[in-house]
Amino acid sequence: MSQQQMNNNTSSSNIPVSERYWTLVDKADKKFSKIRDLPYYERNRYDTYFYKVFKVYTQLWKFQQENRQKLVEAGLKRWEIGEIASRIGQLYYGQYMRTSEASYLSEAYIFYEAILTREYFREGSFQDFNLANKQLRFLARFLMVCLVLNRREMVHQLVNQLKMLVDECKRTFQDTDFKEWKLVVQEIVRFLKADTAFMNIRPLRYSLVLDPHPDVLPHVAAPVARKNLRLRDAVLSSYHHNEVKFSELTLDTFRMLQCLEWEPSGSFYLSAGGKSGQNGALGSSPINHSQDIADPTLPPNPRKAVLYRPSLTHFIAVLATICEELPPDGVLLVYLSASGGSGTGINTAENITRDFQSHTIHSDGTSTSSMSSPSNSPNPSASQKKGDCISYHTGCLQFGNRGSGGLNCIYPSDLIPFTRRPLFVIIESDASEVFKAISGAEKGERAALLLSPNCSFPIGSSDASRHSVGSLFTIFLTAPLQAFCLLLGISGSDIEMDTYKHAESLLSSSLNDWGLKLATSDNVDPVWAQILGDPFLRRFLLRFIFCRAVLTLFVQTYNKEEFHPECMPALPDAVSPRTSASQTAVVQLAKLFHATKRFVFTEAIPLPDHINSGTRS
Question: Is 515 left (phi over 0), alpha (psi -120 to 50) or beta?
């Protein structure tokens, strides 16, 4: 060791422990404040900086552990230790949102759980308003991590704690309005009421136990599949009036987020046993979290950008950044769920033509249409008839209050510049039909489009079903069997587990049959052929085929095209709704739930003898 290093060590040892600690805290705080507001979607640009911040907080955490007694004697409070752990949890969750690596989410859970079990924020929280606020914010952040990690038992435990803490704070700090925190409680309660145990009987995430392993997916012939693309990134955004959400995560985007993750298997877990966590941060919990560890032989989760009520400029910026980072074999999934924008009173063809002739947004941010329509109501549902079906075509999706004009509108033409890269677009809207205009107008790569029905059949207890359980088309894509049951008015309490498992097996078999038909078809469009090797996109496509078959054959939507989903380009006739195979898939499930009379089947479909009468048309 050099003389200079020895002198530095000596001078460092002469500085009081508490002073060295607060110097580290100040350094960590400055770095944290710089990254806290950085966008989640610009991932690669900030990776190096994030690792530097992780390193500083690792040093800080280790230093306070090694010098805990001296620091306590110098005045260190328990909540200050909790604040460090909470910051580390925030860093891990933020890095998960940027990378979609499940290990970061698990690390965030570990730190938050340690804060909860050791009650770092509890002492003195009812005497100190700022400390009470810290505990409330911690519980809300931990709730979000548990939701995404699908730890439902802990979610319910945290909700109860949050309710009690808000009530206690209202009694203790009577001069303070806790209206915002009461709203947080209402949001999570409403979210859990909609996202029931029935909706989560089967993991929304891709499970190797229930879904085909990527290695065994049917091979698509080379002449048909000119490329073999993989889903690398996804942009997920949803906005509907009064929709179910928690913080900025809506129910629809939550389900899509879950559906684009691998279900952790835990079988490859090696006990941490006190080892350091990822990036050197010391693991805080002795609990075995093996269920959170994914199979390392699987590809990484697709990266996801979740946008809540984005402005057009923000949406465009996110798409541009992701397309710039997209690898050569990558596909970008764009999921948009929103109501149609301001009505124009003209037919669809005219609207689409005008959409491409101009951006339909004036410089002052107002829509080009000056015509009044029912949609100008602050409540979109007020102008809708039964089944969330509007009687006009609007030409765009509205991602915000209607009074803000075109700044909150996303038009089909807004997506066109990004078709220089492969896009897989899912539109859930009463204006989905206008997005057909993308097909044929691409700038380099043909886009794959899955479009919801323009009219959504009401499910649940009222016509405003979207507000109670989410969007039906999205449920079909993320939890198809539950969507089938909801369509029939069947709830979780009405189904025995043996019946559900049998239905799940039948549906899985039908989906695999459709997948094989597509893979071996001579006339499948290359747009679909090139994504059949990706397990996530393949699953969406097969569930779309099921959704289309069900809604086409359902008595109340039979021969009503406005209730049927569409895709662009067209799929082979072999998987169309009226084929024998598609009708058999539906009739098998209908029979299992004693609902064959709710569907219209052709004479060619052999039904069991005891239900033949009254079920054919």
Answer: alpha
Q: How far apart are CA 236 and CA 252, in angstroms?
A: 9
Under a CB-based contact definition with an 8 Å cutoff, are residues 341 and 373 in contact?
Answer: no
Contact 341, 394 (CB under 8 A): yes
Q: What are phi and psi of 421, to 5 degrees?
A: -115, 155
For 574, which DSSP code?
Answer: G
The residues facing 245 across adjacent strands are 250
List of long-range contacts for 21-30, beta carbons under 8 Å, 24+ apart: 21/60, 21/63, 21/64, 21/67, 21/71, 21/76, 24/56, 24/59, 24/60, 24/63, 25/60, 25/84, 27/56, 28/53, 28/56, 28/57, 28/60, 28/84, 28/87
**Residue 15 has what DSSP assignment?**
S
Residues sharing a CB contact under 8 Å with residue 396, sequence separation 6 or more, in sequence order: 340, 341, 355, 360, 406, 409, 410, 411, 412, 431, 434
pLDDT digits (tens, 9 = 90+) for 410-432: 999 999 999 999 999 999 999 99
Q: Considering only CA atoms, which of 133, 430, 84, 491 is closest in space to residue 281?
A: 84
* Closest-CA residue to 572 (of 520, 532, 616): 520
Residue type, 418: F
Calpha distance 585→588 (Å, rounded): 6
pLDDT over 50 (residue 271): no
Closest of 56, 520, 95, 466 to residue 301, by C-alpha = 95
Is the separation of the CB atoms in 421 and 448 below 8 Å?
Answer: no
Whether the Cβ atoms of residue 143 and residue 162 lie closer than 8 Å to each other? yes
Phi, psi of 113 (to 5 degrees): -65, -40
Asked whether 397 and 410 are in contact (CB, 8 A), the reply is: yes
Distance CA 262, CA 154 (A): 21
The answer to whether 367 and 376 are in contact (CB under 8 A) is no
Terminus-to-terminus CA distance in the chain, angstroms? 91
- The rounded mean pLDDT for the chain is 82
Rounded-to-integer distance, Cα 35 and Cα 45, Å: 12
Pairing relation of β-strands 303-308 and 249-250? Answer: unpaired
Residue 174 pLDDT > 50, yes or no? Answer: yes
Burial class (CB in 10 A: 0-12, 13-18, 19+), 16: exposed
Per the CB < 8 A criterion, the answer to whether 360 and 312 are in contact is: no
Weakest-pLDDT range from 53-57, 67-71, 396-400:
396-400
Half-sphere exposure of 107 (CA within 13 A, CB side): 28
